[in-house]
Write a structure and sequence with these properties.
- The protein is of the alpha/beta class and 351 residues long.
- The strands form 2 sheets. The chain has a 7-stranded mixed sheet. A two-stranded antiparallel sheet has the order 6-7.
- β6 and β7 form a beta hairpin.
- It contains 10 helices and 9 strands.
- α2 runs parallel beside α4.
Length: 351
C-alpha cells in the first residue's frame, strides 16, 4: 500500500513500514536536515521540503500523492504547541500558537487526495484543543466527524507504547479515519511489558567519554560535578536524595529541581518518555540505571548512549543512520518520534 506523510520529520516512526508492506511515495518536512534524513531512509519517495502552508509546497504534496495513487495519508503535526513540556500551559496559549492550526492543512489534504485511510498522531493534549468552525468551537474529533462523518469512520484512542512491545512509556493520541466500507481495528496489547533491563543490559558498561565497539554506543561527556553526583545515585533514584553528593551550586547549596531531575532510570520498568533533551543529565530520568560497584558507587554515570536510545525506542540495533548525522541530531529525531514498532502495529491492522 502506498502512503504519503505530512510533517515526516526524519522518518524514524516509519522504520518498519516497508517490511510491513507499506511504501512511502511522498513526504513533507519543514527542516532540511530531517528531510535529508528521511530521504536517506526512503530514497524513492518524493520529498517536499518546506512549509506545507505555502501553496506551491502543498500543491506539490497533494498532486504527487494523487499521481502515485496514495491510499494511506499519515500526518504527525508538530506537538510542541500541545506538549506539557513546552511553553504552552493553558488553552489560551495553545490557541495563540500557530503550529496548533497545522491540522487544517491535513484536512485540506484529505479533501483533495481522498485517501482510503488516514492516521493522525500527536500528544494526548491534542485531543483537548478546541478549533473554531462556522462560529462554533469543536474538538478535533468532533470536527473530523462534522467534516467527514458521511464518508469516513472516525476512531481514536490514547495508546502507550509500552503496551505494544516498546520498552518505553510513551502515551500518544492516534486518530484513525477510514472509508465506511473498510475495516481498521486497533492492535492487541502485548501480553508482557518489556523492561529497560531486557532491552539494554546486554550492552557493555561505559562511562562518560568512553567508547565501545559499536559506533553508536559511547558515553557522552559530562562535567566532573555531574559525574560525581550520579556515581553516588542508586538505580531508580534522583541525586537530590543523596546525603552528600547532591546537585549544588557554587556556594555549596542544593539547587532547585524537579524530583525526577538528575535521576537514574529503573532496570525493571520501561524507560520513561524519551525526549529531545536526552543529552542532559539534569533532564527527567535520562541517566543510565547503573550497576552497584564494589566501592559502593554506581557505574555508567552518564545519559543513555544513542544505541541505548535506539533500543528503548524499538529501533533495530543495525538501524541505517546517515554518516553525516550528528549525535545531537540523532537524539532529537529519536526524541521527537513515536516508537516505530507502535506505528507498525497500528497500520498493519488495515484491512
Amino acid at each position: 500500500m502506498k502512503y504519503s506523510i505530512m510533517f515526516s520529520g526524519a522518518g524514524v516512526g516509519e522504520t518498519y513500514l516497508k517490511e510491513a508492506g507499506f511504501d512511502c511515495v511522498v513526504a513533507n518536512e519543514l527542516e532540511r536536515k530531517r528531510a535529508d534524513f528521511h530521504k536517506h531512509s526512503h530514497p524513492n519517495a518524493h520529498m517536499v521540503c518546506g512549509d506545507i502552508c505555502e501553496e506551491n509546497n502543498f500543491n506539490d504534496f497533494v498532486e504527487a500523492s494523487i499521481a502515485n495513487d496514495v491510499e494511506l495519508l499519515i500526518a504527525t503535526p508538530p506537538c510542541q504547541g500541545f506538549s506539557l513540556s513546552g511553553k504552552n500551559k493553558s488553552h489560551v496559549q495553545m490557541v495563540e500558537d500557530a503550529r496548533n492550526f497545522l491540522i487544517f492543512k491535513v484536512f485540506d489534504a484529505i479533501e483533495r487526495i481522498k485517501p482510503s485511510y488516514v492516521l493522525i498522531e500527536n500528544v494526548p493534549r491534542f485531543l483537548k484543543m478546541n478549533y473554531p468552525y462556522k462560529g462554533e468551537l469543536y474538538s478535533v474529533i468532533d470536527l473530523l466527524k462534522e467534516l467527514y462523518g458521511d464518508e469516513y469512520d472516525v476512531d481514536w484512542q490514547i495508546l502507550n507504547a509500552m503496551d505494544y512491545g516498546t520498552p518505553q512509556s510513551r502515551k500518544r493520541a492516534f486518530i484513525k479515519i477510514f472509508k465506511k466500507d473498510l475495516k481498521w481495528e486497533w492492535p492487541e496489547k502485548s501480553e508482557k511489558i518489556t523492561t529497560v533491563r531486557e532491552a539494554i543490559s546486554h550492552l557493555p558498561s561505559i562511562e562518560s567519554g568512553e567508547k565501545s565497539k559499536h559506533s553508536q554506543h559511547f558515553g557522552r561527556k559530562h562535567s566532573a560535578n555531574h559525574i560525581l553526583w550520579m556515581k553516588h545515585t542508586p538505580t531508580g533514584q534522583s541525586a537530590f536524595k543523596n546525603k552528600v553528593h547532591y546537585p549544588k551550586n557554587k556556594m555549596g547549596n542544593m539547587i532547585n529541581g524537579y524530583h525526577d531531575a538528575y535521576a537514574r532510570m529503573s532496570w525493571d520498568k520501561p524507560a520513561p518518555t524519551i525526549t529531545i533533551r536526552s543529552d542532559a543529565i539534569s533532564s527527567n530520568s535520562k541517566v543510565h540505571p547503573g550497576r552497584l560497584k564494589t566501592n559502593n558507587t554506581y557505574s555508567d554515570a552518564r545519559v543513555l548512549s544513542i544505541l541505548e536510545l535506539m533500543l528503548l525506542s524499538s529501533l533495530p540495533e543495525d538501524w541505517d543512520i546517515p554518516e553525516w548525522a550528528t549525535e545531537l541530531l540523532l537524539r532529537q529525531v529519536i526524541g521527537e518520534s513515536v516508537p516505530p514498532l507502535m506505528i507498525r502495529k497500528i497500520v498493519e491492522k488495515i484491512q
